[in-house]
TrEMBL record:
It comes from Gossypium hirsutum (Upland cotton). Keywords: Membrane, Transmembrane, Transmembrane helix. The chain crosses the membrane at residues 25-47, 89-110, 156-178, 184-202, 222-239, 251-269, 337-361, 373-391, 412-431, 437-459, 526-547. It is found in: Membrane. This is Protein NUCLEAR FUSION DEFECTIVE 4. The gene is LOC107916007. It comes from the Eukaryota. Residues 337-553 form the NFD4 C-terminal domain. Its main location: membrane.
């Protein structure tokens, strides 16, 4: 008897463990860890100085490389299309391989372990490495949104918030492992995100959507943990700026950050235990009822044939229906969405807003240098931007959700206001005073983070979730395009123009200096004034979208998902009851 009881107990424990690692709460936890490693492109401002000095680039060349970074980070159509035909684990696996390959090659070049690559090769390496984050986005973020459609605003805010925090998390980890060596940061960026994706590659998958009484509570707990993590990193960043840290102190800081990052695992265990404990109560009433009536086999067969015929008809008439899209919120086809006026307005607005934000983020290192900030201060500015990037993302997710549901205020209106906030940050750089770059990093980080969450949420709300993996990747194509025009063609050119003036004033030739550097307030004055005007124009464009969608956002945008959840819960409860009857028999 004792052996039987022990064996039964072990069987129950194994089943519970299996439920935990295959459940949606562990899937959420794993997704957050993957997303916390998917924002390493924001660290370009920290190690770009090493690339510039080691390889002898001027600012235009460095900005060209950063544009290819932005191109890779935002051109996610390949990952979206791959997700339509391949399982999620394969999407994550491809992303992990690309991440390691791209950044490892950059590290080899910067540390002179290989012959100096050509500029186009460096651009290709960083494009490949940055593009890997789209596979993480598509694999984990899209899956979570589909598994939690009614909480998509909060879910996107949290997940994009962790992406924003990654720019502040990674410096703490690399200080703990490598010390104050920014070249080793590139190596860390190469292997660490890839390792995390490989560990959880089979845990991220789509599930049938269902409701849970603690869903909102869990999301708020995650928000609390993420906020504590953000505040801890902010405190550590400020302390490391004021007081010299030993390697041991950095090690303890890194352990504290990692402990908080992994603490949501306890929430996953708790929620799965809650589900396990209440399963009997949920299925017991159903077992008392007679077997649910089912459709006759012939009727089911005809229904399947009808659905198949309907799918074929829809496919055949796809081209003719491009300009006859469904109502907002229903599932658009890819072409219907891409050729819609709403998508054009989203694209044009984010071309201005996200293009300006990416340009500002990529130039932070050189902005600090031109204004006389020391290296440690520049690292602090980048960390502060990442932390406020997080706050912007969760604000856009949680607060915009509350405002939408309570006051029916269209989500695009919040995006329009965020663009104006970014314009203020641009002006603080164009017309600086002592310490203004710190304030500018807060405003730019907050607005950049909010734009990311709002873009992903608005696309899901206007065009449905059926082709969401492809559509949100198409929508964010505007970011690298805006970054190329604004960063390379405007900011980089104007910076180099000022640097040439300073070089000529000293009576020196370009061949006499290793890197072309501009010092002074005038380096970015004109270019960031242009960025401020561009952000303002983007705000006006999004206001047009607000006027077009105000009626849609005034209604109940989540009704169809509540109906689907009710149907799924009936099906799941019936299936659980049948399984229990088989065990009892």
């Amino acid at each position: 008897m004792a052996t039987t009881a022990s064996g039964s107990s072990g069987y129950v424990c194994c089943r519970f463990f299996l439920q935990v690692i295959t459940g949606k709460w562990f899937m959420m936890f794993a997704s957050f860890l993957i997303m916390a490693c998917a924002g390493v492109t924001y660290l370009f401002g920290v190690y770009s100085k090493d690339i510039k000095s080691t390889l002898g680039y001027d600012q235009s060349t460095l900005n060209l490389m950063s544009t290819f970074k932005d191109l890779g980070a935002n051109v996610g159509v390949l990952s979206g299309l791959l997700a339509e035909v391949a399982p999620t684990w394969f999407v994550l696996l491809v992303g992990a391989l690309m991440n390691f390959t791209g950044y490892f090659m950059i590290w080899l070049a910067v540390t002179k372990r290989v012959a100096t690559p050509k500029v186009w090769q460096m651009c290709a390496y960083i494009c490949i490495g940055a593009n890997s984050q789209n596979f993480a986005n598509t694999g984990s973020l899209v899956t979570c949104v589909k598994n939690f459609p009614q909480s998509r605003g909060m879910m996107l805010g949290l997940m994009k918030g962790f992406v924003g925090l990654s720019g502040a998390i990674f410096p703490q980890i690399y200080y703990a492992i490598y010390g104050n060596d920014s070249k080793s940061l590139i190596l860390l960026i190469g292997w660490f995100p890839a390792a995390i994706s490989l560990v959880f590659v089979y845990n991220i998958r789509a599930m049938k959507i269902s409701t849970h009484p603690n869903e909102t509570k869990v999301l708020h707990e995650y928000l609390g943990i993420a906020t504590v993590l953000a505040l801890l990193i902010m405190a550590l960043t400020i302390a490391q700026k004021k007081v010299p840290f030993s390697h041991t102190a950095y090690l303890f800081s890194g352990v504290a950050v990692c402990f908080i990052m992994f603490s949501p695992f306890l929430i996953a265990i708790r929620e799965e235990f809650y589900t396990w404990r209440n399963r009997e109560q949920l299925t017991a009433p159903i077992r008392l009822v007679d077997e649910a009536p089912t459709l006759p086999e012939t009727e089911m067969k005809s229904e399947i044939e009808y659905e198949s015929m309907e799918t074929k008809e829809a496919s055949a008439s796809g081209c003719s229906s491009i300009f006859k899209p469904p109502k907002r919120g229903e599932d658009f086809s890819i072409l219907q969405a891409l050729f819609s006026i709403d998508m054009f307005l989203v694209f044009l607005g984010t071309f201005c807003g996200l293009g300006c934000s990416l340009t500002a983020v990529d130039n932070l290192g050189q902005i600090g240098e031109s204004l006389g900030y020391p290296y440690q201060a520049v690292s602090t500015v980048v960390s502060l931007l990442s932390i406020w990037n997080y706050f912007g993302r969760v604000f856009a997710g949680f607060v915009s959700e509350i405002i939408l549901l309570k006051y029916k205020i269209p989500r695009p209106l919040i995006m329009s206001l965020v663009f104006l906030l970014a314009a203020v940050g641009d002006l603080l750089i164009a017309f600086p005073w002592p310490g203004s770059v710190y304030l500018a990093s807060l405003l730019l980080g907050f607005s950049f983070g909010a734009q990311q969450t709002l873009l992903f949420t608005i696309v899901s709300e206007l065009f449905g979730l059926k082709y969401y993996a492809t559509l949100f990747n198409c929508a964010q194509l505007s970011s690298p395009l805006g970054s190329f025009v604004l960063n390379v063609r405007i900011v980089g050119k104007l910076y180099d123009k000022e640097a040439w003036k300073q070089l000529a004033a000293k009576g020196m030739a370009r061949s006499m200096v290793k890197e072309l550097t501009c010092i002074g307030e005038q380096c970015y004055r004109l270019s960031f004034s242009i960025l401020a005007a561009t952000n303002t124009f983007g705000s006006v464009v999004i206001l047009v979208l607000v006027l077009r969608t105000r009626k849609y956002y005034g209604g109940d945008i989540y009704k169809r998902f509540r109906d689907e959840i009710a149907e799924n819960e009936k099906e799941m409860a019936l299936k659980s009851a049948q399984e229990m009857q088989m065990v009892e028999s």
